[in-house]
Design goal:
The chain is mostly helical and 426 residues long. The protein contains 20 helices and eight strands. The chain folds into three domains: 119 residues, NAD(P)-binding Rossmann-like Domain (Rossmann fold, 3-Layer(aba) Sandwich), CATH 3.40.50; 57 residues, no CATH class; 222 residues, Orthogonal Bundle (N-(1-d-carboxylethyl)-l-norvaline Dehydrogenase, domain 2), CATH 1.10.1040.
């Protein structure tokens, strides 16, 4: 492979590749953070700001690099190309397009590229940014997998950490199950990837497939297992699925989401959930951890649960206030933020940009003394930016508070509360 570094030895070869008329597509698997051009405060990142001023000859940010390579293609005749994001985030093609255009427009304003380059980028007969839904659980490299490979006689299976903190290895531990749903928008043709199981469809169907997975069939269940797994002392998702209480919890959460699921048609939401619950999450060869999944939960909740809550509020035949298990997840998350597990041992809280502010709001709440919980939850549960709706307006705020207070009773209160909800509402 070649490294997309304009100061490195591979850059000239990458430029040649992008100038080749036969190039049909370039794909991206750079994680959601790779598309970000601003920080949490909305300020342009230093690398992006530097790129916008410097022009297409010395890009550093991935979005600027993509724009610079497209500029080389434009200069070499402007042959069509598809820029395909295959990262696990909503509207990924839109994110990629916006990142590329941010760089290109900055260069055009500064007179560093001609307006014709922007016109070419904007022409969907020339350049497309197809949306995709990709699904394959691929945790960090596992010591368990490393040992298994070494026992088979393979050598040099060392797990290393990059200078940015990412764990890498000569192997990838991932599940067998995989889905790739692609918007069929390839102006220069494409390989027959449908023969390998890729689904080609229109953008609306891709978005429904993504919402189905992220908003109902997989990610909400992952988040529930994350917060309760941490509280109950688990270190793998597979082990949690052997816990009857946790298994029942995620089954009930799935059942609450199904009535308002985004059904893409080409994948069955019910079959997708069954595969997640019976094959994927219980797989011991996928050593994914609740601690990893619990990271950035405040950023995940509006995507993983907000859509379901909003769709419930829009339905006249369903009452959002009747939900029981989804608010139990919110109560468990607030209990998790206290940094004390169900055995009353101190527990690390995974990184989250809102954690300091949320924990400050919960200051004074003590596990073992439920009366210390007065109105601390109100500013959290009323925040529609976190839950997609104001939980009090939806009739779920008081429910969430009640479950949270029950989990403060003392050692084992999380488990007891979970069992009570599961038995009373079975």
């Amino acid at each position: 492979g070649y490294k997309a570094d304009c100061a490195g030895p591979d850059w000239a070869r990458l430029v040649q590749v992008f100038q080749n008329p036969s190039l049909q597509l370039a794909s991206f698997t750079i994680t959601e953070k790779g598309y970000a051009l601003t920080d949490l405060a909305g300020e342009t990142l230093p690398a992006a700001r530097q790129d916008f001023a410097a022009g297409p000859d010395a890009p550093r940010h991935t979005m600027s690099i993509a724009a610079a390579l497209l500029y080389r293609r434009f200069q070499a005749g402007g042959h069509p190309i598809a820029m395909v994001s295959m990262d696990n985030c909503a509207q990924n093609g839109k994110k990629l397009r916006e990142g590329v255009f941010a760089a290109a427009e900055a260069w055009e304003r500064a007179g560093l590229v001609p307006a014709a380059f922007l016109a070419w980028l904007s022409d969907e007969k020339k350049v497309t940014f197809p949306w995709s839904m990709i699904d394959k659980i691929t945790p960090h490299p596992s010591e368990q997998v490393k040992k298994a490979l070494e026992d088979l006689g393979l050598q040099d299976m060392t797990i290393s950490r990059t200078n940015t903190g990412t764990l890498i290895a000569p192997f990838v531990n991932a599940e067998t199950t995989e889905y790739l749903v692609l918007e069929d928008a390839f102006p220069n043709g494409r390989p027959p990837l449908e023969r390998a199981g890729v689904y080609f469809t229109d953008r609306a169907t891709v978005e429904k497939a993504e919402k189905m997975k992220v908003g109902t069939c997989l990610n909400p269940l992952h988040t529930a297992l994350a917060v309760y797994g941490c509280l109950l002392g688990y270190t793998t998702i597979a082990a949690e699925m052997a816990d009857p209480d946790l298994r029942a919890l995620v089954e009930h959460i799935a059942a609450e989401g199904l009535p308002v699921v985004e059904d893409p048609g080409l994948l069955s939401p019910r079959k997708f959930i069954d595969e997640v619950l019976h094959q994927r999450f219980p797989n011991p060869a996928i050593p994914d951890t609740p601690q990893r999944i619990a990271a950035d939960t405040s950023q995940k909740l509006p995507v993983r649960y907000g859509g379901t809550l909003q769709r419930y509020t829009q339905r006249t035949d369903l009452a959002v206030s009747a939900l029981e298990y989804i608010p139990l997840v919110f109560a468990g998350w607030c209990r998790y933020l206290l940094g004390v597990d169900d055995a009353l041992r101190e527990m690390p809280v995974s990184p989250d940009p809102m954690a300091p502010a949320l924990q400050a709001l919960l200051a004074g709440v003590k596990v073992g003394t439920p009366e210390t919980c007065t109105d601390q939850l109100r500013p959290i549960l009323s925040n529609a930016a976190i839950f997609g709706v104001d939980l009090y307006q939806a009739g779920l705020g008081e429910k969430t508070e009640a479950a949270f207070r029950a989990m403060l009773a003392g050692p084992g209160a999380v488990r007891t509360t979970l069992r009570r909800y599961l038995s009373e509402r079975a």
